[in-house]
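[Discussion] Sanity-checking designs against the backbone

I'm trying to build intuition for which residues belong where. Below is a structure token string of 304 positions. I'd appreciate it if someone posts a full sequence so I can compare it with mine line by line.
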């Protein structure tokens, strides 16, 4: 038996068959500083509710998988020290040993599938890191998208990554990468990466229909919906490029590796931009939550 606790709000939504949207917790513990992390988590949940769906923030607390966090649980997680960053490889081990961990995109997809939640909103997925040809650092998020049937709404992949290689791996693994409302693949803080997205859709209905058809065709895996950051909130790619280069050089000089790379880079860029990168990150996650709520409602209207 998997030790799962549903929050009262999520349990009621499941009973009433209301549309649900999963939200991750690594962005809270490893992606943003306190207190903006908790404030953002709350406002992202509010966006999902305003969009007519119910938010289910996911984390492992003392060996139980929580689907939906209470306000007190969210506050505690946002200030906790030494929380594990869970992916597919260590998820079950954390449950088995009574640990506490935040779920990455990969682990949140697994939890969403277990809870019957079809849509998940985050900031940006992990991907192929620059220099992967020597480091082999490729996020487990990509392999998860290839095998777990959840539609993930993100502002593309983080611009700290090697985006052409990230798109190549997604293509090889058969993951539909759908830019929402534009032709270009977005680059997290910027609306365009300068790379064309493999697919484009302009409505939540189409995205829902594609998910249903993939299931009908017995195709495993999810869909990546790449939703560009709103124009008013973006940081142009050329402004950010030198900041990213400097952050990568610093990570290399300090020998930062594996799971520590993404949190290190995000923190470095936050300080180097005087917080502008965080403001953009918050805006894009809220924007993704709004679209995810609409996709979840569209899926409810198109029963499997
Ligand atoms: N989106 C954000 N901030 C984040 C993340 C997503 O706006 O910190 C997290 C997600 O949990 C994602 C992880 O799975 O970054 C990627 O980490 P890595 O590159 O180590 O796979």
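Best answer:
Here's mine. Compare freely.
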């Amino acid at each position: 038996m998997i030790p799962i606790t549903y929050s009262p709000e999520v349990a009621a939504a499941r009973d009433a068959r209301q549309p649900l949207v999963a939200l991750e917790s690594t962005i809270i513990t490893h992606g943003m500083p306190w207190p903006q992390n908790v404030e953002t988590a709350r406002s992202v949940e509010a966006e999902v509710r305003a969009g007519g769906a119910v938010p289910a923030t996911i984390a492992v607390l003392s060996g139980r998988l929580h689907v939906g966090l209470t306000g007190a649980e969210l506050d505690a997680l946002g200030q906790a020290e030494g929380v594990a960053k869970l992916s597919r490889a260590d998820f079950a081990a954390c449950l088995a040993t009574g640990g506490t961990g935040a779920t990455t995109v990969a682990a949140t997809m697994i939890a969403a599938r277990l809870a019957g939640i079809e849509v998940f909103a985050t900031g940006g997925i992990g991907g192929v890191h620059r220099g992967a040809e020597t480091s082999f650092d490729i996020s487990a998020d990509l392999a998860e998208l290839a095998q777990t049937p959840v539609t993930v709404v993100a502002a593309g992949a983080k611009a700290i990554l090697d985006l052409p290689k990230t798109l190549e791996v997604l293509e090889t693994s058969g993951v539909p990468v759908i830019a929402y409302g534009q032709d270009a693949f977005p680059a997290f803080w910027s609306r365009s990466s300068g790379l064309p997205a493999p697919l484009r859709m302009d409505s939540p209905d189409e995205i829902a229909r594609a998910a249903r058809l993939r299931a009908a065709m017995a195709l495993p895996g999810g869909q990546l919906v790449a939703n560009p950051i709103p124009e008013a909130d973006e940081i142009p790619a050329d402004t950010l490029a030198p900041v990213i280069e400097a952050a990568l050089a610093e990570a290399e000089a300090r020998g930062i590796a594996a799971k520590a790379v993404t949190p290190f880079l995000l923190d470095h860029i936050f300080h180097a931009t005087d917080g502008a990168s965080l403001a953009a990150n918050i805006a894009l996650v809220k924007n993704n939550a709004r679209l995810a709520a609409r996709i979840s409602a569209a899926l409810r209207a198109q029963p499997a």
